[in-house]
């Protein structure tokens, strides 16, 4: 259920036991360790960061959504077939009600949470899909989306994009985890290596090279065609995993994919 005609509200302006939902649909997981698995996606609106290359523009730069009660969301999920549910955004953990939603779904579904790694959760999570944001993600007047002035977000994003305590908590508490980096080029690898080392230094859990995934930046097939081979070569050279973006390969930049 794509939602594009609702009034945008402040990122964390949740009302009672409701969540701002941008999309709720069934498709294939396109990224990470579970790529190709049929999944129901619950996409919340609102984010505490502003990546210039954000592939869900209407959950961050121009958030749009409908407010749905938790029982309504659960009923919609139950009406669909997949046994895997992906709670994503935006940044779903900016909303306290996301924890309640995860708890409500935990007994019946495999739960993935897609998060930028700056916020923690005590809710049950089967796979924490953590995508720490690199310096190359910071918006500037030169790289910001068309007709968008990044304004205060350049500094705010840069200052908030990495939280080691939150990263360690997500790695330690979830049943499984993956560190999934959006890679714009070879210049990102030094920071990835440094950040992985930092997480290994603070997390009370082993972070294997196979838990680190490199994903090419690109929102369309044409953009991915320019980046995927270089990123795959980097993954092979550094011993990390490469993850495709199957939804882009299959459906380009169509909604509900």
From TrEMBL:
InterPro entries according to UniProt: 7-CO-7-deazaguanine_synth-like (IPR024924), Aldolase_TIM (IPR013785), rSAM (IPR007197), rSAM_sf (IPR058240)
Reaction(s) catalysed by this chain's protein:
6-carboxy-5,6,7,8-tetrahydropterin + H(+) = 7-carboxy-7-carbaguanine + NH4(+)
Q: What keyword terms does UniProt attach to this protein? A: 4Fe-4S, Iron, Iron-sulfur, Lyase, Magnesium, Metal-binding, S-adenosyl-L-methionine
The cross-references to Pfam families, in alphabetical order and at most eight, read: Radical_SAM
One Gene Ontology molecular-function label: S-adenosyl-L-methionine binding
- Residues binding [4Fe-4S] cluster: 47, 51, 54
Name the cofactor(s): Mg(2+); [4Fe-4S] cluster; S-adenosyl-L-methionine
Residues the record lists as binding S-adenosyl-L-methionine: 53-55, 90, 131-133
Tell me the route in metabolism or biology where this protein functions: Purine metabolism; 7-cyano-7-deazaguanine biosynthesis
| EC number, UniProt record | 4.3.99.3
User: Which amino acids does the record list as binding substrate?
Assistant: 28-30, 43, 88
Residues that bind Mg(2+): 56
Please state every residue range assigned to the domain named Radical SAM core. Answer: 34-253
Q: What role is this protein assigned?
A: Catalyzes the complex heterocyclic radical-mediated conversion of 6-carboxy-5,6,7,8-tetrahydropterin (CPH4) to 7-carboxy-7-deazaguanine (CDG), a step common to the biosynthetic pathways of all 7-deazapurine-containing compounds.
Query: What name does the UniProt record give this protein?
Result: 7-carboxy-7-deazaguanine synthase
Question: Which organism does this record belong to?
Answer: Haloferax massiliensis
């Amino acid at each position: 259920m794509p939602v594009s005609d609702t009034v945008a509200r402040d990122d964390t302006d949740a009302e009672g036991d409701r969540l701002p939902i941008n999309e709720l649909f069934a498709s294939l997981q396109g990224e990470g360790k579970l790529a190709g698995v049929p999944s129901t996606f619950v996409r919340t609106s609102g984010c505490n960061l502003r990546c210039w290359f954000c592939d869900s523009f209407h959950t961050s730069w121009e958030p749009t959504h409908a407010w749905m009660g938790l029982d309504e969301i659960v009923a919609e999920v139950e009406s669909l077939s997949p046994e895997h549910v992906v709670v994503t955004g935006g940044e779903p953990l900016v909303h306290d009600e996301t924890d309640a939603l995860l708890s409500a779904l935990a007994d019946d579904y495999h739960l993935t949470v897609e998060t930028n790694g700056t916020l923690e959760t005590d809710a049950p999570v089967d796979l924490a899909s953590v995508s720490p944001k690199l310096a190359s993600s910071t918006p500037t007047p030169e790289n910001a989306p068309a007709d968008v002035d990044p304004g205060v977000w350049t500094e705010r994003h840069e200052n908030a994009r990495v939280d080691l305590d939150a990263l360690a908590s997500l790695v330690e508490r979830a049943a499984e985890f993956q560190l999934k980096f959006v890679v714009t080029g070879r210049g990102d690898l030094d920071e990835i290596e440094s950040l992985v080392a930092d997480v290994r230094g603070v997390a009370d859990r082993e972070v294997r090279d196979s838990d680190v995934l490199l994903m090419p930046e690109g929102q369309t097939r044409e953009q991915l065609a320019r980046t995927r081979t270089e990123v795959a070569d980097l993954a092979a050279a550094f011993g990390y995993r490469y993850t495709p973006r199957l939804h882009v390969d299959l459906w380009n930049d169509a909604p509900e994919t």
